Amino acid sequence: MREVGRPAGTSDAADDTSSPVPQPPVDRDDLQTPALLEVKGLRKAFPGVQALGGVSLRLRAGEALALVGENGAGKSTLIKCLTGLYQPDEGEMLLEGKAERFRSPQDAFDHGIAVVPQERNLVPQFTAGENIMLESLPKRRGIMIDYDRVHREAQKWLDMLGVDIDSRVPASSLSVAQMQLVEIARAISRESRILLLDEPTASISPHETQTLFSVIRALRTRGVAIIFVSHKLEEVFELCDHVAVLRDGRNAGPQAAITDLDRNQLITLMVGRVQVVHELKPRTDGHGAPLLELRGLTSESGAQDVSLTLSRGEILGLYGLVGAGRSELAKSIIGADRVLSGQVLVDGKAVRITGPGDALRHGIGYVPEDRKYQGLIGIHSVMSNISITIWQKLQNLVGWVGGRSERAAVSPMVGKLDIKTPSLSTAVDSLSGGNQQKVSLAKWLTAGVKILIIDEPTVGIDVRTKASIHELIWDLASEGLAILLISSDMPEMIRLADRVAVMRGGRVLGDLANDHDYARMSQQIIGLIH
Q1: CATH architecture of 14-121+191-277
Q2: In the chain, what's the furthest Cα-to-Cα distance?
Q3: Secondary element (H or E) of residue 339
Q4: Domain ranges of the chain
Q5: Torsion angle of alpha carbons 148, 154, 159, 162, nearest 10°?
Q6: Residue 147 and residue 139: Cα distance in Å, rounded?
Q7: Would you tell me how many other CB atoms lie within 10 Å of the CB of residue 255?
């Protein structure tokens, strides 16, 4: 059995076995050291769901504790209880041995607890700097907000993270990855004793991740305690001292020293069974004339003289640091951002695309990075979200979409992508992140697109579901779909892409054939970026 998560061109899809789940040894040193924060038997239920079923953990000053588990394991619910957003039904939280119950996020903040939430909470009308300093806006003469000082202070925290973001830009103009970095700057600016990081690296590249880790290590030397939630297990092993694993709202075993576990053992604790890993099926690389071609494309959003080709059955990766222009290029292709010069060709013919509707008519679909706010309509049903791209085809003579015809069009795709949903009428925002992503894919596949742009396909998705998404993308390319894959996850990029185009400042710096050798490819990619 090969190591789970190997970044070569193989799959993490797994079969279950009935082998018992081994438990890590109890860390006696951890139990003997006084806890800064301790949680005992925390329970939280929602209608029909027991989200937390008696969770316990200990966090020491200066420690980085990993909190891991599959989607739906209870990690975010626990974070929300710790920060006063939810009130637990049972159990207790002790801060330096004293029982506390936080009535609101502000109450938790006043007790020295800051959080980077999984869901972004920026005020879009405010600048990046105003969002960072929102809880402590400096004032002049105690009345007027001192905006010069706001931006001086905010810029200091952005510079500490090593990101090229002007504190005076509106939050609404930032990319998803830039918003994530502003959230991180906002949390560390509070100089709290406890910092809760819920998927902080989900949308940022390895370069920004390493800068963040340097900041976290510096905070730890000052006694700040960190709870680090991530599906990227390589980051857990790099950064954290201890790990607490949740499964189905409960502790999957005793809190353990990270050195007492390897990757396979940690995954087994998370999913509750031993896994056997299979290789991805052999796939023919893209060949023949390009299906999609860009010639000297320059756009209003920052693409600079970009030329690329993408063939049928090929996966072309777009890689770069935050602000490199990858998502902006994708939006230019589908007409969401205006093209200033250059050409887009589909099947060898120049096309003029002025919006997503035009893109769809030319057989191009786009799965955006922010599936919650841009890719799906959360309160609408699974069926409506998938069929939205074919409503015009399904309309009857009086303009109505018949339920029977809609169901007949959608059901086969739900089965093909193995979308786990109670019914087609279930609201899509009640599904797990992985199933929501499959719905995002399904709506374009139902429309019969031949070119699919997928932006950050596995953000916030657990290790097992991530493997199934990888296999799905691989199989779609095997069926002849041309895929433009944008990802900040280097192992994901090297595992899936046939070629990798590296971007910086809106330009393509190079186009590398991918031999799926992680060490060699990552070195070549990083060499181009820097």
Answers
A1: 3-Layer(aba) Sandwich (3.40)
A2: 74
A3: strand 339-346
A4: 14-121+191-277, 290-529
A5: -140
A6: 8
A7: 21
- Quickly tell me which residue has 């998938």 as its tokens: 386
Apex 202 CA angle, 385 and 51, nearest 5: 70
Location of structure tokens 């092993």: 237
For 23-57, the DSSP string reads: PPPP-HHHHHSPPSEEEEEEEEEETTEEEEEEEEE
CATH number corresponding to 290-529: 3.40.50.300
Contact (Cβ atoms closer than 8 angstroms) between residue 490 and residue 319 = yes
Q: Alpha-carbon distance 88 to 90, whole Å?
A: 6
Contact 447, 360 (CB under 8 A): yes
Angle separating helix axes 176-188 and 206-221, nearest 10 degrees = 10
The region, left, alpha or beta by phi > 0 then psi within -120 to 50, assigned to residue 84 is: left
Q: Give pLDDT tens digits along the chain (530 positions).
A: 233 333 333 333 444 444 456 566 556 555 567 899 999 999 999 877 789 999 999 999 999 999 998 877 889 899 999 999 999 999 999 999 999 999 998 899 889 998 888 777 889 899 999 999 988 888 887 778 888 999 999 999 998 888 788 999 999 888 877 888 888 888 888 888 999 998 888 777 787 888 888 888 988 998 999 999 988 888 999 999 999 999 989 999 899 999 999 888 888 888 876 555 556 777 765 567 799 999 999 999 889 999 999 999 999 999 988 778 899 999 999 999 999 999 999 999 999 999 999 999 999 999 998 877 788 888 888 988 898 888 677 655 435 555 677 888 888 889 888 888 888 889 888 887 788 889 999 999 999 999 999 999 988 787 778 888 899 999 999 999 999 999 988 889 999 999 999 999 999 999 999 988 888 898 898 888 87
Measured distance CA(426)–CA(421) in Å, rounded:
7
Angstrom distance (rounded) from CA 403 to CA 394: 9
| Residue of 312, 308, 310 whose CA lies nearest to 283 | 312
Query: Do the domains 14-121+191-277 and 290-529 sit in the same CATH topology, yes or no?
Result: yes
Element (H, E) at 34: none
